[in-house]
Specification:
The protein is mainly alpha-helical and 191 residues long. The protein has two helices and three strands; from the N terminus they run E-E-E-H-H. Helix 1 runs antiparallel to helix 2. Mean pLDDT is 89; it is low at 1-10.
C-alpha cells in the first residue's frame, strides 16, 4: 500500500461554500475576492467563503424581490387609472360618432349658404356680416370635429400605456428570475 500526502497549501482551497469562521473576513484567490458570510440565497446558512460577485448578485436579487410588491402596487394603480380613462374615452368616442356627422351636415349647410350669399354680388356689402358669421361657424365646427378626432388617438395611447405598464411589471418578474438563476450559478459551491 502507498500513502500519498497532500501539501498544506492545498488543504483549504478557498471557493464558494468552503467553511470559514470570521464573518466579514476578506481574501483574494486568483484575482477573485471572497468574503466570509452567510449565503443570502440559503435559509439557515453557515459562514462560508462567497465571492463578491455572488454576494453582489444575491443582494441585487433580494432587493428586487423586496421591491416587487411596490412595483405591483404601482402597476395596479396605473392600470386602474388607465382603465378609467379608457372607459371615459370610449364614451367620448361614442359621442364623437354621433356629433361629428351632425357637425359635418351643419358645415355642408353653412357652405351652401355661403355659396348663395357670395353669389349675390349685388348685395355683398349688405351680406358681409352674415358671410363672416357663416364662415366663423364653419371654422368652429371644423375645430370641434378635429378635437373629436383626437379622442380615438387618446384611447389608443391609453391602451398602449396600459400594455406597457403590464409589460414592465412582467419584465420585472422575469428579471428577478434571471437574477436568481445568475446568483445560483455564481454562488455555486466550488465556483
Amino acid at each position: 500500500a502507498t500513502i500519498s500526502t497532500v501539501p498544506a497549501s492545498a488543504a483549504t482551497k478557498i471557493s464558494n461554500g468552503v467553511s470559514c469562521s470570521k464573518a466579514g473576513a476578506m481574501t483574494k484567490v486568483s484575482g477573485s475576492s471572497y468574503k466570509c458570510a452567510k449565503n443570502p440565497l440559503v435559509k439557515n446558512s453557515k459562514l462560508t467563503w462567497l465571492s463578491l460577485d455572488c454576494l453582489n448578485t444575491a443582494t441585487t436579487y433580494t432587493k428586487a424581490v423586496a421591491n416587487l410588491p411596490k412595483i405591483k402596487a404601482a402597476t395596479e394603480a396605473t392600470v386602474a387609472k388607465l382603465d378609467a380613462d379608457i372607459a371615459k374615452q370610449a364614451l367620448q368616442v361614442e359621442e364623437a360618432a354621433k356629433i361629428v356627422p351632425e357637425y359635418q351636415a351643419k358645415i355642408a349647410k353653412a357652405n351652401a349658404e355661403l355659396t348663395r350669399l357670395k353669389a349675390d354680388t349685388a348685395n355683398l356689402t349688405k351680406n358681409k356680416a352674415t358671410i363672416a358669421a357663416w364662415t366663423s361657424a364653419v371654422r368652429n365646427y371644423e375645430v370641434a370635429i378635429k378635437a373629436y378626432a383626437t379622442v380615438g388617438k387618446q384611447s389608443d395611447r391609453s391602451e398602449k400605456a396600459k400594455a406597457q405598464a403590464l409589460s414592465q411589471y412582467e419584465n420585472s418578474k422575469t428579471d428577478i428570475g434571471t437574477t436568481l438563476d445568475m446568483a445560483k450559478l455564481i454562488c455555486a459551491k466550488g465556483f
